[in-house]
Specification:
Length: 464
Amino acid sequence: MYFGIKKTLFSEYLVYINNIINILGRCARCHRLAVKESKNMVDFEVIIIGAGAAGIMAANFLQSRDVSVCVLEARDRIGGRIHDIHTKQMGHLHLGASWLHHKGNKHILKALLDQYHVAYLKEDALESSDKMEIYSEHGKLSGKEKKLFTEVLIRLPKNIRKIGQQQPTLSIAEAVRLIGEKHGYSQSLIQALITRSSEHCSQNADVMPAREFDGWEPNGLFVKDGYGKLIRKLSRHLNIEQNTIVQRIDQTDEIIVIETNQKPFTCRYVISTLPTGVLQSEQVTFVPPLPTNKKVALEQLDSGNHEKIFLKFPHVFWDKDTEIFQLAAPNNRGACTQWHNVLLNTEAQNILYTNISGPDIAYARKSDLALQDLCMSRLRQMFGDQIPDPISIYVTRWSLDQFTLGGPYAHPTMKGKMGDLSTIGEPFGHIHFAGVDTSESETETVEAALLSGIRTANQILSKR
Ligand SMILES: Cc1cc2nc3c(=O)[nH]c(=O)nc-3n(C[C@H](O)[C@H](O)[C@H](O)COP(=O)(O)OP(=O)(O)OC[C@H]3O[C@@H](n4cnc5c(N)ncnc54)[C@H](O)[C@@H]3O)c2cc1C
């Protein structure tokens, strides 16, 4: 009996142990399954960092092809370097991009503006010397010189590059000077061309290599409604997390983990549209770190510097039909030397705007008041001492903004080359790089940024 009881207890014990083993086995299987499943489970297939033109275009493209996408944006707004605001004092202002410039070989932007009913105007001040006035220390340039300026400007990029390739250490300013002296241009005209080159490059023409000069075509179209309208339309129905600052992108595992100031996100592919200045600042950590060739390329680029300054006056003292007033300044060429007549393009009243596009970032650190003084001294050189003081001023600070840290686009330094942009655009594992500075063939513009979004979206589609 005792044995019988014991035997029963023993067999029950065995069953009990067996059950536990089974349960543990099931748990282990469940655990393995859970891990396996979670390996397949990601928050989104693609996460795009940055809701500027590149990021919004990439997201729009992927979502329309049924890919699950989310855009993480650090700021409390979308658009990045496209930022249109409405101020009580000055009305509608484009703080970032305003024009459609024709560059590169692929063109999609005009068709997009038409498709989304974004109004634009023909803006041709740099094509036609009638629409601009150029002032030097000695007064206005003659009509003949202005005409020459326009003609030379169109050929200038090609000529700057050509002479730069022959003499690789030549800066843009030196190249312009050599070209000017060879053709017997006046010093005022040479200064005007160098000033324009600085303004165009968003940097100092004295420290940029002529061999890599990317050039411009005349201004093209002024996007009257603002690019913000296009971005808003392209971003409709997209999943965008604003106020989400990406801090770390870890692709050590199959699943990419993105750490932010909000919460972690997981995905299979990342499209980074972080601006060059942000990548250079290393405020976002890549795990594993970015490869050496990308780091070298980043070191060899200058992220640019182009701040807009808008001044509103009590009345118009300039010629209403002139679009651009340019001061050919021998020093500080990029600081408040090119003035645009906003009146012509928008309903804004009595506003002129200028920019700081070099020679160094220190200008952007000056107070609004100090900048106003600088602006007024420039304007008085052109229009005389009698002009009134402005009644309000608005200054952008892109170069100091943590989420831009630069200007409209990056440009090679004397050590760099345009190919550095393409190096930045190369995929790194499952991280793809879009943005205005990620291709040597499509550069500088909103259009380049949009195209980079499509390029990276296609790279991912072809990998899936
Ligand atoms: C003053 C100015 C004038 C310009 N004028 C023209 C013009 O007339 N015509 C033209 O074609 N182009 C112009 N440009 C250039 C054009 O605006 C830009 O090249 C283009 O908009 C860049 O788009 P992007 O998507 O590459 O970068 P961005 O627009 O800079 O987008 C990057 C996004 O990433 C976000 N971000 C940054 N860090 C983080 C982070 N850690 N986590 C999450 N998000 C982050 C940013 O907030 C931003 O929204 C101008 C630019 C400026 C600044």
